[in-house]
Amino acid sequence: MYRNLTIRQKQIVWAWAFLAIPVLFYTVIRFYPTGNAILISFQNWNLLGDRTWAGMENYQKLWNDPVFWKVFKNTFIYLLLGTPISLVLSFVIAYHLDKLRFMHGFLRMLYFLPFMTSAVAMAWVWRWFYQDVPIGLFNNILAGFGIPQIAFLQSTTNALPAVLAPAVWAGLGFQVIIFMAGLRAIPTSYYEAAKIDGVGWFTVLTQITIPLLRPTIVFIVVFSSIGFLRIFDHVFNMTTNNPGGPLNATKPLVLMIYDTAFNGFDMGYAAAQTVVLFTILLIVSLIQLRLLRST
Amino acid sequence: MNAYLKGLALAGLTSSAALFASAASAVEIEYWQYFFDARVEAMETLIANFEAANPDITVTMTHFPYADYRTKVAAAIPAGEGPDVVQLFYGWLNDYVEAELIQPLPADTFPAAQIDADFFPMVQAMKDGDNYWALPTAVRSLALFYNERLFEEAGIESPPETLDELMATAAAMTKLDGAGNITQVGITAGMTAQDHHWWREGLVRQFGGDPYVDDYQTVNYNTDAGAAALGFYTDMFLGDPPVTAIGFMDEPQAAFKAGRAGMHIDGSFRIGSLNGTRGLKWGVTELPANADGTRSNYSSYWVNAITTKAEGEKYDASVKFMQYITSDEAMQIWLDTVGELPAKPSVGMTEANANDETFGPFIRGLAYANTTKFANESGQRQLMVEMVERIQLEGMDPAESLAIAAEAEQKLLDDYYAE
């Protein structure tokens, strides 16, 4: 039977034969659980008993839950602070590192190192930095100068930026490397032309470098936005005693989902939150791709 | 080389033969618990003793990290793969009964009246009519740990007996640096640790209240007694001068372990980790009484139950195993290995145990302990944490914060019991 196929058809058969494994894998590992999660979001389930239909109950509960709105806001603060800050920082670092020859490889490694470090270990080290006297590094330095200590994690206003800082720092190395690859990919002929015309560095930056980096910027923005929308390990590990605290000041959506599912054992409600997170991720990614690609 | 291989093969054959021989004649039952070094060790001893007395029964223990425990049990039992005897937190019992994952203990071997008489009264939460659903080997309660070196340094001769003495003792041990930061606390504080239990079942009752009514389905601490208890608690870190700080050295037990805290309220399970601490000389005493001498404590426990998977001869073997792990002997072994308290007065209140320097205060505490029936322990603890945070971080009026907490907890309980 295979023999009677045309070459084109044979190619298709082979393509599907090779695709079968990833398709099967994705169906079992991704699509089935995703579909199941959407199903559970319309049910009540405590992991032990039977699942019962709840209709829209979980979504109504979510809409009326003040904690959800607080968490929703936090998630977007992580996104709206984290993405631009890390984008600008990593660009500035990459831009200057690119021009530097002295100890270039060593410096690049230093920037990349945090990205390779386990987020859990890093979060615990920063957690220690932020403690009050007598153990916290930052506050001990302040106290050494006789300055009253700052409540970093024990504050409803300071805690979120304090948790965000190591998360930005951790992602920086990766973004610097991507930016440097993007910078190297810009043909030198543009810069040579600019030099011949006697254009200043600022014009070169804004008229050549940044426009030609657009694909790189799109990638980094989308990639880091998804990362900040899904932030969990830094927050959880820096606030394990009171996850997402104080007073939910640092709680992101993923942590709320975890808490609802594995402390409250309210799987339906947790699944509803997951569906909302999935929708947000989808919308934010689509908007960013559209905005940054079109013009 | 050859001889070595032969020997190895022979050894393999003999051991597999031995395995088959025992499998043919013995009933094998499975026991599950979560992983905690001392608990696993104690259970291994109990299983060895049980198997020695019942050569025809083999008990296999499986343990999991605490975080996965509930999920695995729930997935395994309906699939027929799980344990025959399982360890559960007392607060989970309702969920397991409703999901038909466990079966009641037989009334002829575990007569309710006998158990009522033999065990400490809080165990009665596991009773339904004439049957008990589950029984603990050990229970836990709270007590006041104190640092003997810091006591000596501050010239304190004996641990505080009353709440007023507690505050005075703590004040004497609190130290500040030049910038006014606390560098040593008189007593640790933090609702994230054990303080929420101390507040609910200890302080609220000692100030004349009753934290819950209707079998823990109705919140009842938004009263004068509750306000007074909250006032006492917040005075520890908001008073003038404060004797503690929330979040001091990250965790209360860490501060105490490091010798930077004069006193610390914690459970009997902390004994093991304090014992190995170099340079720490500690003692322990009962939770302080109020002005008229009333004491109150909190107790919790893990229970063992027979699952619905156990049938026929496995069921009979499971019943025998349950009998052994709730026996006086098992409780003494558990106390000696894990440091958790015996669930029966006949073991706990022996001369040696009740007057034990370390375990005594905890065991005496059981006599006046209450067990909160939680719907969602971490959720309910979180409300206590936030009640304090609203006062401390947002400057909210304590009465208002107390009312918010009571309302939120009532809603949580209503949602749980409505299902």
Secondary structure topology:
The complex is a heterodimer of chains A (295) and B (419).
Chain A: H1 7-40, E1 43-44, E2 52-53, H2 57-63, H3 66-99, H4 104-116, H5 119-129, H6 137-144, H7 159-185, H8 188-197, H9 201-212, H10 214-229, H11 233-238, H12 253-262, H13 267-294
Antiparallel strand pairs in A: 1-2
Helix pairs in contact in A: 1-13, 2-13, 3-7, 3-10, 4-7, 5-7, 7-10, 10-13, 12-13
Chain B: H1 2-25, E1 27-34, H2 37-53, E2 57-64, H3 66-76, E3 85-89, H4 93-98, E4 102-103, H5 112-118, E5 127-128, E6 131-132, E7 135-147, H6 148-153, H7 163-173, E8 175-176, E9 182-187, H8 191-206, E10 212-213, E11 218-219, H9 224-238, H10 252-257, E12 261-267, H11 271-275, E13 282-285, E14 297-307, H12 312-325, H13 328-338, E15 341-342, H14 345-348, H15 351-354, H16 360-366, E16 369-370, H17 377-394, H18 398-418
Parallel strand pairs in B: 1-2, 1-3, 9-12, 14-16
Antiparallel strand pairs in B: 3-14, 4-14, 5-6, 7-12, 7-13, 7-14, 7-15, 8-9, 10-11
Describe this structure in words.
The complex is a heterodimer of chains A (295) and B (419). Chain A has helices spanning 7-40, 57-63, 66-99, 104-116, 119-129, 137-144, 159-185, 188-197, 201-212, 214-229, 233-238, 253-262, 267-294; strands at 43-44, 52-53. With 295 residues, chain A is mostly helical. Chain A has a single domain (61-294), classed as MetI-like (MetI-like fold), CATH 1.10.3720.10. In chain A, strands 1-2 form a two-stranded antiparallel ribbon. In chain A, strand 1 (43-44) and strand 2 (52-53) form a beta hairpin. By secondary structure, chain B is an alpha+beta fold. Among the domains of chain B are: 27-140 and 300-370, 3-Layer(aba) Sandwich (D-Maltodextrin-Binding Protein, domain 2); 190-243 and 375-419, Periplasmic binding protein-like II (D-Maltodextrin-Binding Protein, domain 2), CATH 3.40.190. Helices cover 48% and strands 19% of the residues of chain B. Chain B has 18 helices and 16 strands. In chain B, a hairpin with a 4-residue loop joins strand 10 (212-213) and strand 11 (218-219). The A-B interface holds A 44, 46-50, 127-128, 131-135, 139, 142-143, 146-149, 153-156, 241-242, 245-247, 259, 262-265 and B 67, 70-71, 74, 95-96, 98-99, 101, 177-184, 190, 192-193, 245-251, 260, 376, 378-379, 382, 385-386, 389-390, 393-394, 419.
